[in-house]
Amino acid sequence: MNKILLMGAYSFVATNIENVLTNSHYSIHKFTRGIEDKKEKIIKGNVFSLSSNPYFDSTYDYVINFIVIKNGTIYDNIEYIKSLIKFCKKHQVKKLIHFSSIMVYSYQLKEVNEYTPIETLKETTKRGYGEIKIAVDQYLLSIKEKLPFELVLVRPGYVLADNRPCPFIKKLPFGISIIKGNKNSKQPIVQRKDIHQALIKIIETEKNDNVYHFFPNNNMTKYTYAQQVTKGIILTMPKWLFKNIPQFIAKSGIIPQSLYSRFEGMYIESRFSSKQTEDKLKIIFN
């Protein structure tokens, strides 16, 4: 029975994936941060010294990485990835599936597909989560060709499940909802259960593509999505007020570019495509 190690097994995206993979006849081990310990198939330890943790099995077939050190620096996150790469080499891993993000792409792009180059650290004004994701992907892409195992980057849209609220819809009293953006703004949404099924497809695929997109290939706008999931009046935020004016203020040096990028992110109009992913994995995201 093939063994899978889940890094960050208690993250929101990973919830219930153990059951899904077990039902597909995989043996699952789970890693979470803490003092080195092991209880049944749950392993704890320091993310920066994975290779020296004595509680891991000698080999694993597949590793799925959900971990991002959100309260850490870029340096912390890259050091973790270096630790994970070293671990995968030592434990003879065949395939590392790493959760990236669509935030690695520039907001200005007209088209975003699986072959689109990521934004670089030198180019981006993003800070926090987006900047960390860019830094880690940039590092992984720089070493990919030298790795003795398969590296697959998955870039999901915003993940929904268990009545998790949509991030760009704010519900107000009297049946009114307001969208963070205008009628042309986009933010791909994906259901967690679809992600889990796609991961099984990746595991079972002998030769994967380098990058997969996890979201429906429907180019849906925030406004159209809101029409499907809400009732009542839907309001939008004018682009001239919440993007153009902050852009002018940022260019004048009154506010930092990193603050303006938050406004800019509300008005992404890129055509997000997952066609290559759906064709390769023979899956449809709903």
UniProtKB/TrEMBL annotation:
Top-rank taxon, per record: Bacteria
Domain called NAD-dependent epimerase/dehydratase: residue spans: 4-168
Molecular function in Gene Ontology: aldehyde dehydrogenase (NAD+) activity
One Pfam family it belongs to: Epimerase
Gene Ontology cellular-component terms listed: cytoplasm
Matches recorded under Gene3D superfamilies: NAD(P)-binding Rossmann-like Domain
InterPro entries assigned to the protein according to its UniProt record, in alphabetical order: Epimerase_deHydtase (IPR001509), NAD(P)-bd_dom_sf (IPR036291), NAD(P)-dependent_oxidoreduct (IPR051783)
SUPFAM superfamilies listed in its UniProt record: NAD(P)-binding Rossmann-fold domains (SSF51735)
Protein name in the entry: NAD(P)-dependent oxidoreductase
